[in-house]
Amino acid sequence: MIPRRSQRTGVITILDVARHAGVAPSTVSYVLSGKRTISAGTRARVLASIRTLNYHPHAGARALASNRANVIALVLPLRAGMHVPVVMQFAVSVVTTAREFDQDVLLMTADEGPDGLRRMDASALVDGLILMDVELNDARIPLLCELDRPSVLIGFPAEPDGLTCVDLDFYRAGQVCVEHLARLGHREVALIGAPRAVYERGTGFARRTMTGFLDLAATLNLAADAGPCEEDPVAVEQRVGEVLARRPSLTGLVVHNEAVVDQLLAALLAHGRRVPEDVSVVAICPDGLALRATPALTSVLIPAEEVGTQAVRLLMRKLAGEAVPDSSLLPPRLTVRDSTAAAPLPAR
């Protein structure tokens, strides 16, 4: 017999499960918490009742039983220059993977810096933290090292020693783009980067991409230009015009600013440059964005799903008391599509 739902709350309670299984409420609690050994038969009967009644333990009850909240915090401050659709791919991956571990995710989007971490630590609402939008000299890092709660960073500060970090190797990503263009014979290249605010606050992934791009271009003796680009169409057209004015023989472009991809392609056409006949374009972006562009873009994948999954798994291992590697840099993967071709022959 399936009991009626609680008249007060309208939901199945632990008392309902106990009555259905023919055991004491404390027995149900012990099955859920694992704090006492319960015979296999009784445990099976309780679990069957839980499934039959579709019972979901209250989060507070779970926390009291295990000294865990079964909640992790994703600290994702929404700041100027962030491309929210891509950022949310990371967030979705974190949430989806956390559910595999029966964890809920508390999303913190306010730009509170160390104060937000301090408030979260004092509340005891979460068991661990995942931090995004990591800066090279991130003000949150010193406090993070003092907290008892384990943490994982999606991104790398300038000094990652003693921290658990995971991300795409953006320095190498910048190099991979240059290598591809150089193999195709391009000798003048430029990087269209993130908005200026992203560089000014020292965001690690943007700085590392630009450094990798410029370092390898210098090693290969390529003429190179690199700088930020704002996200509105007027700014994109202006930036493209400035680059072409400085380097009229430019034939290779790398774009590391997902929000301006379509505007960049339109601006090149407006300046009489066809892709890839006159200018080859490589993007660092998700595959979906690269495939929707016309022409489809040769790109280095931003592996949001893989990075988010790894971050959660590393945090779960730390919560379990396991040793984990300090750093996990994912190698960049370049996919060649329709937007790159051999450099055009110089005009006679």
Report on this structure.
This protein is an alpha/beta fold and 348 residues long. It folds into three domains: 14-66, lambda repressor-like DNA-binding domains (434 Repressor (Amino-terminal Domain)); 71-168 and 304-330, 3-Layer(aba) Sandwich (Rossmann fold); 170-302, Rossmann fold (3-Layer(aba) Sandwich). It is 44% helix and 15% strand. It is built from 14 helices and twelve strands. The protein has helices at 14-21, 25-33, 40-53, 59-66, 84-100, 114-123, 141-146, 170-183, 196-200, 204-219, 233-246, 261-270, 287-292, 304-319, and strands at residues 71-75, 104-108, 128-131, 151-154, 165-168, 188-192, 223-227, 252-255, 280-285, 298-301, 327-330, 334-335. The chain has a six-stranded parallel beta sheet, with helices on one face. Strand 9, helix 13 (287-292) and strand 10 (298-301) form a beta-alpha-beta unit. Helix 8 (170-183) packs parallel to helix 10 (204-219). The longest helix has 17 residues, at 84-100. It is elongated. The protein starts with 13 loop residues before the first helix and ends in a 13-residue tail after the last strand. Residues 1-9 have low confidence and may be disordered.
